Amino acid sequence: MLNQKKIIIVMPAYRAEKTLEKTWQALPHDIIDGVLLVDDCSDDNTAEVARRLGITVIQHAVNTGYGGNQKTCYREALAHGADIVVMVHPDYQYEPRLVTALAGMIASGVYDVVLGSRILGNGALQGGMPLWKYVANRALTAFENLLLGAKLSEYHTGYRAYTREVLERLPWQRNSDDFVFDNQFLAQAIVARMRIGELSVPTRYFPEASSINFRRSVRYGFGVLGTSVLGLLARSGLWRHRLFRPLLDINAQ
User: Fold this and answer.
1) Is pLDDT at 253 greater than 50 in this prediction?
2) pTM
3) Which of 92, 106, 126, 239 has its CA 20 to 30 A from that of 10?
4) Which helix (DSSP H) or strand (DSSP E) does residue 162 occupy?
């Protein structure tokens, strides 16, 4: 715990057997109250490795996608009484030791959402991010900042911490089951005027680290553009897509 806040780590996992143990070992176990791994129907030994490490495992019978995996992660974390939820990818691409810093920024009461940014500190290219991904990241981020009225260094990191209240308030259940889930979640937080902080984190790109190919990246990019336009309409009061309506409004339909 930090400041009497229960901290739960969630790991959306798919084919992570080679990197899971290294990620788990680097976590700051002294402040963590639980680790939940959701295995998205992997065809390797991800679940077996997780159980050997003492991680609570939830297995999907079918592959639900990156966003679908996270939906299970957050439902389970809330059911386990989490006050702070930190998403850590089990592919060891992000530095697990910085969980304490991310969770601390939440536990301090200063922020509702904290992002581990690969762009702050110029660590992305140094960590091996392909140049085309870096350029796309910067271009999409600039577009999103313009439309959403924010000033974030990046919107595309998978290293994130949330308060329980954020997960209870935002309608993330309506988000995509694909990779654009993260982007929709962040746009929802911005439109809801939640306090968002960023922390510089190093990143590693290597063969075992998860990454989407160029084709799926293009599809993701178009999804980001669409989400940004919907966010602009919502924050300007012109029209609210159901992604940006309160949970009570959605459940009433």
Assistant:
1) no
2) 0.94
3) 126
4) strand 160-163
